TrEMBL record:
Keywords: Nucleus, Repeat, Ribosome biogenesis, rRNA processing, Transcription, WD repeat. GO terms for cellular component: nucleolus; small-subunit processome. This is WD repeat domain 75. Residues 787-808 have a biased composition (Acidic residues). GO terms for molecular function: RNA binding. GO terms for biological process: positive regulation of rRNA processing; positive regulation of transcription by RNA polymerase I; ribosomal small subunit biogenesis; rRNA processing. It comes from Gallus gallus. The gene is WDR75. Residues 826-837 have a biased composition (Basic and acidic residues). WD repeats lie at residues 75-117. Residues 782-837 are annotated as: Disordered. Signal peptide: none annotated.
Length: 852
């Protein structure tokens, strides 16, 4: 069997071409962050009336409809992480946002318009806006010259004209505060501010300019941890609630005296309290922690409390709407839960779940074109790229997850779909004293539209499973379906479907092992099938083996020392005769399957190798000098089509080509590889990115935005009137074959003003009302002549006998009128006497003529 040890001469030239700078892609190819940003980086806020929910999500501020859960608005403008969002106290239709980029931005969030940008010059870690502070906000910034030391300052926002302003007038309020936004709170409409850090509580009164400090012991006699974790202030009373690392809540009173203060203790949480929030009237206190349970304490009593359990993951923030009708909890798994004030679940906004560790990679579901990867522990999440929301979650492990550190539990490590998405294969493992492995095969049920477990195989390998793939052939024939798994036990196994002949069996189909292969006792690391399914490539450490999938004969081997094979893939379409492999020593190799020789090689540290299923293109991502670079090439051409150097400063873990619903129009030949598929990346921080030739735009179209806004609007008589008016305008002009001529006029400017202009900038109603009323009136000259009824004089003589015949004549004239006129001919109108004579002639019996 041929074994290629070194590259040929043309391979060396290919390596030089790969390093050429002439093919660097121009700036038209942009990297766009399209999902995965945490929505729990800051406390979410409700708009007035609780119609919308605004939350920070990475560099953006997202606005969701509370009624429909749809993304209505995406506020872009910050260049770094958004750390705070607050409604403007004196204009509730505007919003303040702070960011690590050192700016505070003022938005008209209903229209997505950036009004002003205030440059502070420091990293802003938290933001607070108070009604009592007319022209200033409070932020937490790092203290100059000191590491890990922060201070609460007041920033004066100038009202001068202009969009970009500098806010350099800062006043220090508190020193030595915690960087977390939940560790600082304002009470009694801004009369005082309370801040906690470690075991210290400090309260500053603005009018008296008095600062009181209180301290607790780090641990108590019973071993409790008294470290502060969060703080909240009562809206009407002098009461401060603090959360602690041991799960206790303390209610502080009389804290305006340094020595006569008192506090009471509430305790339910078994771990640290993550956030606290008082209700609108202060009659109840909400708390959340790692237990995924929202606790409602009534009147500060330890006995009166209500619970909303099973919220999915730890609660990071708790928010309350301005009218008190809704609560909102932000969770560590990138989920926002909207809850009614009676602790009834209302809505869930679920983004890309940040798993503890993504081991499955990025996999595309052929049915929904959703990205599939690790989600909640033991679950697969199906993530929709268009809406940036989770479609659904599939429980694979089917075991209750226990939140306890150091406990080894079953984890999902591998996943693969068949070509049409009919079968799903998963691998889960649990490592205690002995390794526990389970291979599960799931069948998609068309009736329930979900996957059902078909076969469970315990210990399919004696060691960890390293790779898994289906053979991409026609799934209508179950005999041709095949699954291959590779393991560290130095073998690869082939699994096929068997039909159960037992009539009492619950399932007619099941999976069984058909073949076991190995190569010199080397560990099997990767596997993939050729496009037609006739060949199987399996890598054994530094060697790639090629097998015939029908007879399982070893056809040839390829090796390129030094370095173990990191990933392999076959070429597709016109490049199906090539096999690509990347080593962990920084080589990218292309072998020709017909000549069993090395076609070319390149010195490139490839960490991700991803082929496009719809074209010959292959994407390779390299990692060098702590920066990622993108290379796109065809196997039959050593020169890459596109090179995007240093396109990401984070390490790329996985990549996937997602087929487009409609091919995109690409102007340049260099980017034709983006026409039918879109390339997505997942970084080591679990942020989802893509490359595009277009600028970063919102994924929502204007029509979908308008739909989302209209769905959240209340039903009023005026909205019903507008809806009826729009429905009438959408009707066609042809009704049951009758041609009706309408004089179409331009849309009324008054209606446009009412429908498309924000309410807070509209002219007065007295100005718009006459214009709007006049636009609804119909002028006399627009009245159609066809609406005037024709006067028809009926003959009284023999009226009853002739009525049917007259109707027939009238219909014939109406049917014949338009064709004649269309031919340019004129018709002669009969007089009444002629019509009477014609009716008499029609009554004469001419049947006697048939005798001749």
């Amino acid at each position: 069997m041929p074994c290629v040890q070194r590259a040929e001469l043309r391979g060396g030239r290919a390596a030089v071409r790969f390093r050429s700078r002439k093919m660097v892609a121009p700036a038209a190819l942009r990297v766009v962050r399209c999902g995965g940003r945490a929505m729990h980086g800051a406390r979410a806020v409700f708009s007035v009336g609780a119609r919308f929910l605004l939350c920070a999500s990475g560099d953006f501020v997202k606005m969701y409809s509370v009624a429909t859960e749809e993304l209505v608005q995406l506020l872009r403008g910050h260049s770094d992480l958004v750390t705070g969002v607050q409604l403007a106290p004196h204009n509730r239709l505007q919003l303040y946002s702070s960011s690590l980029d050192g700016t505070i931005k003022l938005w008209d969030f209903t229209d997505g318009i950036l009004i002003k940008t205030f440059t502070v010059g420091y990293q802003l870690l938290a933001l607070y806006a108070l009604p009592s502070s007319e022209d200033s906000v409070f932020v937490i910034i790092p203290k100059s010259g000191e590491r890990d030391t922060f201070q609460l300052v007041s920033v004066k926002l100038t009202k001068a004209a202009g969009q970009d302003m500098e806010a350099k007038e800062l006043s220090v309020v508190l020193e030595g505060v915690d960087a977390s936004p939940k560790c600082t709170a304002f009470g009694r409409e801004g009369e005082y501010v309370a801040s906690v850090k470690d075991v210290n509580l400090q309260v500053y009164f603005f009018k008296q300019k008095q600062l009181n400090r209180f301290s607790l012991r780090a641990t108590n006699k019973k071993g409790g941890n008294n470290v502060f974790t969060c703080v909240a202030c009562h809206p009407q009373e002098d009461c401060i609630a603090t959360g602690h690392a041991d799960g206790k809540i303390r209610l502080w009173r009389n804290f305006n005296h340094k020595k006569e203060y008192t506090f009471s203790t509430l305790h339910w949480h078994h771990d640290k309290v993550l956030d606290l929030a008082f209700s609108l009237e202060g009659t109840s206190l909400l708390s959340g922690g790692v237990e995924s349970v929202l606790v409602q304490w009534h009147c500060g009593s330890d006995c009166k409390r209500d619970f909303l359990p099973r919220l999915g993951s730890a609660i990071e923030y708790v928010s309350i709407s301005s009218d008190g009708t809704f609560y909102c909890t932000s969770h560590t798994d990138n989920r926002i839960t909207i809850i009614n004030s009676n602790l009834r679940f209302s809505k869930t906004i679920q983004g890309l779940i940040k798993a503890r560790d993504v081991k499955t990679g990025l996999v595309v579901d052929p049915r929904t074109k959703a990205l599939v990867l690790n989600g909640e522990p033991g679950h697969l999440q199906f993530y929709c790229l268009q809406s940036d929301k989770q479609l659904y979650s599939l429980d694979i492990v089917q075991q209750e997850y226990i939140h306890q550190a150091g406990l080894n539990q079953s984890d999902l490590v591998r996943v693969a779909f068949s070509a049409q998405g009919k079968w799903l294969a998963t691998v889960e493992e649990r490592e205690e004293t002995d390794l526990e492995l389970q291979l599960k095969l799931w069948f998609f049920d068309e009736e329930t539209q979900s996957f059902k477990l078909n076969t469970r195989i315990s210990m399919p390998h004696e060691d960890h499973i390293t790779a898994m793939c289906f053979r991409d052939t026609d799934e209508m024939e179950d005999d041709s379906l095949m699954l291959v798994t590779t393991g560290r036990d130095c073998v690869f196994k082939v699994w096929v479907i068997l039909e159960d002949t037992d009539p009492e069996a619950q399932q007619s189909l099941s999976w069984s092992c058909d073949f076991v292969g190995s190569y010199h006792s080397y560990q099997a690391t990767n596997c993939c099938f050729s496009e037609d399914g006739s060949l199987l490539a399996v890598s054994f450490e530094e060697t790639v083996t090629v097998w015939d999938s029908s007879t399982w004969d070893l056809k040839c081997t390829f090796c390129h020392p030094p370095g173990k094979i990191r990933s392999i893939c076959f070429g597709r379409l016109t490049c199906s005769k090539y096999l690509i492999g990347a080593t962990d020593h920084g080589f990218l190799c292309c072998w020709n399957l017909l000549s069993c020789a090395l076609e070319w090689s390149a010195h490139l540290n490839v960490v991700v190798l991803q082929p496009d299923p719809l074209s010959e293109h292959i994407a390779a991502v390299s990692w060098l000098f702590k920066e990622s670079s993108l290379f796109v090439f065809k196997p039959n051409e050593a020169r890459p089509i596109c090179i995007q150097r240093k396109f990401c400063k984070e390490r790329i873990q996985f990549a996937a080509f997602v087929p487009r619903d409609v091919p995109e129009t690409i102007g340049s030949e260099k980017y034709l590889w983006l026409r039918r598929s879109q390339l997505f990346f997942l970084t080591d921080t679990q942020e989802l990115m893509t490359v595009s030739t277009k600028s970063a735009q919102e994924r929502l179209t204007l029509s979908s935005k308008q739909l989302a806004v209209e769905e959240s609007l209340p039903v009023t008589p005026f909205s019903l009137l507008l809806g009826k008016h729009r429905h009438q305008q959408s009707q066609g002009d042809v009704d049951l074959g009758k041609i009706v001529h309408h004089h179409h006029e331009q849309d009324s400017p008054a209606v446009k003003e009412l429908l498309h202009t924000p309410a807070h900038v509209l002219p007065s109603a007295s100005f718009l009302c006459p214009i709007f009323i006049n636009s609804l009136l119909v002028s006399k000259e627009n009245k159609s002549t066809e609406e005037t009824p024709d006067e028809v004089e009926m003959e009284s003589e023999e009226a009853e006998d002739d009525s049917d015949e007259e109707n027939s004549v009238t219909e014939m004239k109406q049917e014949d009128k338009m064709p004649l006129e269309s031919l340019g001919e004129t018709t002669h109108r009969l007089s009444k006497s002629e019509e009477k004579e014609l009716r008499k002639i029609r009554k004469v019996d001419y049947s006697w003529i048939s005798v001749f």
